[in-house]
């Protein structure tokens, strides 16, 4: 298959490289000539485990190319994917579709012969209709089938998620697209990932409904964690206890500082707006958005409370800045609101993150950066673990404590055991695990 990917950002690049790896002939297009030149030299603009290798191998095999020239790439393609950004529009939270609309018009002008045009970007329900209208208006002779094929990959596990998805959702209104889309995904189909064919609007909604449900699940366990703290229960045991019920499922029940990233915050907000526009309010998601927003800053107050009510003049060592491990992405990371709350209260912040410090510098002012976890601890009155990078999972507690100004540890990801940290002389605070119960779940899990 000849596939063209419009947009070489996160989704476009991962999908393009994976399609090439399936054996398809793939061209990735982007307007940013610096990005395209860098990709041509084998430099990957994002941090994603395994992506550099995948790109290099497929470029070497002649199956993957990069270009700024949209027109010839579209004219040659059987299937054109739109994988451009859909950021939150400033002011109202709706998804900003200007890049999608511009791509549709550019594609329309370049089409030659029957072509399947697929939106892979996360777009509000009804966008496929709009893409179809723009193409027809720009080029009345165009022969296209417009398809919705949302992407469910997670940052940090993107290649694995792409190659071993739980399902592939394909929304179409024109049956001619079915065969080509089946061909595009044949390698996965052979791997037995179910291809779910739906109407186009349904496919668009599946993506938002899925992300909103997951965001709600996380927010639910976060609120249960708060209740656990007040009542002496253990949230990890509650999560295990409810998660074993197959109707609930055990995943996405890790309590923490709130969800962040490039998808959940933006998509939940956009879905709320869609609901309001259609006079079909999504009150559970509205509450999820509000609770999660408040939680991030509340985590800052929790650190202040752990230090006896004041952090003025004190140094807080922060471990982890990115919204989750294995990414350099800082978008909507809880660390931003937590650090701001601490800075507002007069604290000095010394932070370390294995990949996120570059982006952090552009988002948060006034942070001192450390060279590793031990450096972040030196002179600190408290260590706050915000992102559960593997390298923070087995820190030498005695070594950390030796250079700290006071032995406080706030573990916002429940990585450590109370017993262990107290034995090393720390005052230990975690999420939803009051009392000694926090060790029990590990023992059950180890069985
Ligand atoms: C998410 C979806 O998982 C993916 O399907 C979609 O395509 C894009 O959005 P991503 O944003 O990369 O992927 O990260 P994910 O691993 O889902 O985590 C999102 C946020 O939720 C992170 O801040 C993470 O720390 C948080 N989270 C996740 C929890 O706090 N607890 C959990 O149990 C799971």
Compute the number of structural domains: 2
Strand order of the largest sheet: 3-2-1-4-5-6-7-8
* CATH fold topology of the largest domain: Rossmann fold
What small molecules does the structure contain? uridine-5'-diphosphate-xylopyranose
Helix content: 40-55%
How does CATH name the architecture of the largest domain? 3-Layer(aba) Sandwich
Q: Which value, in Å, is the CA radius of gyration?
A: 24 Å
Query: What structural class do helix, strand and pairing data support?
Result: alpha/beta
Count of β-strands: 14
The residue ranges in which pLDDT falls below 50 over 5 or more consecutive positions are: 441-447
How many helices does DSSP assign?
19
Q: What would your notes on this structure say?
A:
Residues 317-418 form the UDP-glucose/GDP-mannose dehydrogenase C-terminal domain. This is UDP-glucose 6-dehydrogenase. Its EC number is 1.1.1.22. It comes from Devosia nitrariae. Pathway: Nucleotide-sugar biosynthesis; UDP-alpha-D-glucuronate biosynthesis; UDP-alpha-D-glucuronate from UDP-alpha-D-glucose: step 1/1. This protein is of the alpha/beta class and 447 residues long. It folds into 2 domains: 2-198, 3-Layer(aba) Sandwich (Rossmann fold); 211-446, Rossmann fold. The chain contains 19 helices and 14 strands. The protein has helices spanning 10-21, 33-40, 51-60, 70-76, 98-110, 127-138, 158-163, 176-184, 186-190, 200-231, 235-243, 264-277, 283-306, 334-344, 357-363, 373-377, 397-403, 418-423, 440-446; strands at residues 2-6, 25-29, 64-67, 79-82, 115-119, 144-148, 168-172, 195-198, 315-319, 348-352, 367-369, 382-385, 408-411, 427-429. The strands form 2 sheets. The chain has an 8-stranded mixed beta sheet, with helices on both faces. A 6-stranded parallel beta sheet has the order 11-10-9-12-13-14. Strand 9, helix 14 and strand 10 (348-352) form a beta-alpha-beta unit. Helix 1 (10-21) crosses helix 3 (51-60), helix 10 (200-231) packs parallel to helix 13 and helix 13 (283-306) packs across helix 14 (334-344). The longest helix has 32 residues, at 200-231. The N and C termini lie far apart (48 Å). Residues 441-447 have low confidence and may be disordered. The structure holds uridine-5'-diphosphate-xylopyranose. Uridine-5'-diphosphate-xylopyranose binds at residues 151-155, 211, 214, 218, 252-254, 256, 259-261, 263-264, 323-324.
